[in-house]
Amino acid sequence: MPDVSSYNGIDVGEIASINGQDIASGEGAYNPVSDSGTYTETVPSSGLIKYGGSKYSATSYTSSDSTTRFNLGNDIVRNFSSDKDGRWPVVAESKSDFTHISYGRYSAMAITASGQLWEVGNQSSYLEGATGTSFQQVTGVGDSDTGWTSVSSSYDGVLAINSGKMYYVGANSYGHAGTGNTTASYGTFAQVGSATDWQKVVRCRNWSMATKTSSNVLYTCGRNYNYQTGQDTSSGNTTSWTAINDDNFTNTSVTHFTSNYDGGILITNGEAYGWGDEDGNERFGLNSSSNVQKPTAIGTVGGSLQTDWASAALGAQQSFLINTSGELFFAGENGYGYTGDGTTTDHKAGNYVQVGSATDYERASFDDAGQATTNYSCIKQRGGKLYFTGISYYGHIIDVSDSIVTTDTLVNSSSLAAGNVWATTTQGGGTANPFLAAIY
After folding, report:
1. Extents of the domains making up the chain
2. DSSP letter string over 35-78?
């Protein structure tokens, strides 16, 4: 390392420590300029992004640790938070306060407690900055570099909110950025419209969802071919943000919404509504194989619609609903043991059925980014920890040799960070590369 008197514009003599290691003069002290002395690495204790998942191999359970496609290791034991090679002001040693993360096919995004937006990925078209294997901060976009409140990375781009304004980078082939056209914005964030009251955004594959702070109304845009935008049509594209069809409910006070490649679920006032493509899987618990063209009440248990739902997860052939008591309910196909009840029994009798008797379920997900047409794994959050069910060898999120995991199995014994928002996705838009990232 060259002998220099400053580092990133800082007089080396003014630097007291790196990662908690004293570098002042004295025998054994670490010198970052000459890279000499004793170095002790100290990893922050919170706000660390850890991740796992690897390329599919039906015969090998060895990870493929390649950061360029996010097929990264087992048991989410790695982190972006500590290194010795001079990146510490850029990566998470100075950014160990991540509070929200979102992973797509080519890019991963993270928001810090101070409202900064950070990105990493291997396709410059779907990023604001340069590609690479280290998180870089997004600056000069929006009203403030600390104004970011929501971000969603998916198959071919990113949507994010800064100070109530929405921005997008990447493809827009189906109008799923909501700009009123199908113009892409490759390599740089562009503002979507002029609204200043956007609250939360979810970008799926070819379509998107978002709410505004005013009355929490849900809007959608993008491709309609399987009724996934909930606009009661399978024709063309909805290229501008449009309030979702509200024939069956009052489109206000939407507290939760989630997506799949070709459908969605929303929750308002404890009531759950689902829409999108449907077939013999009966994933909405409606005892029907007909497409659900617009938001329709779901969540029947024992013949009665329930009104205490708190969150939902939607897969290609199944769904979960979690109530305010922390109980988990399931509808649809269960051939890979998603429920975690130790069986592969489907539930298609027109009802959601409770899974076990636990009351500590907080969240579940098949694919946050809404990329895959088929899901082979499921992640659940229980009591502040993450659990896996499904086909284990399609991602090595857990290190077991079982082909199918039918009972909730710990991903990591550590507890998640308070208020953690973790992300699970399927790389490449296919089915064989499940991936999980979480904040600890």
Report:
1. 1-42
2. TBS-------SSS-EEEE-----SS------BTTTTB--STT--
